[in-house]
Amino acid sequence: MKFTSDPDPLRYPIGQHDLTVEPDAEQVQHNIVSIAALPLKLIELVQDWSDEQLDTPYRPGGWTVRQLVHHIADSHINAYQRTKLTLTESNPTIKPYDEGAWAELPDSTLPIVPSLHLLTALHQRWVTILHSLSAEDLQRTYYHPGMHQSFTLATMTGLYSWHGEHHFQHAYRLAERNAWL
């Protein structure tokens, strides 16, 4: 997985993901392991945080940790659906969504437990599919109309491995800065 550096480490704590790099078979397996590990890693970090901690933005102008947890669930539900569409259709056009608007909907104020449970169950199903993919399956594509290009499932594993770690690091580094660890 390749990341580009970013001058704003609060916004991109591990850098930005480079979608132009197609991962090899070894990297895809690493990405899947990373995706599989995210729910437990996130639970261990935030499960005992107070409402005050969960309602703290991870950076000035950023989402709260509560919104972040709900966002990861929203995003990974979409990724799971895109995976299944890609495996059952020929280069399907996926539906982009307004992440910022979703993060403002009323369910973003709920306790995080439902989203943590959802992530755990979702990742169990998603990772089962990802582990079963052949080299040919990993080359299947979906079309992203907002980006005007197609992406392979192999590339998608890199994106979502990065996405999970990116947001985990938002919460983790906030906890470090505030001595919550």
TrEMBL record:
Gene3D superfamilies linked: dinb family like domain
Hydrolase as UniProt keyword: yes
Keyword Metal-binding: yes
Occurrences of domain DinB-like (ranges): 42-170
Keyword annotations from UniProtKB, A to Z: Cytoplasm, Hydrolase, Metal-binding, Zinc
GO molecular function terms noted in the UniProt entry: hydrolase activity; metal ion binding
Cross-referenced InterPro entries: DinB-like, DinB/YfiT-like, Put_metal_dep_hydrolase_YfiT
Transmembrane segments: none
Name of the protein this chain belongs to: Putative metal-dependent hydrolase
Species of provenance: Spirosoma rhododendri
Biological classification of the source: Bacteria, Pseudomonadati, Bacteroidota, Cytophagia, Cytophagales
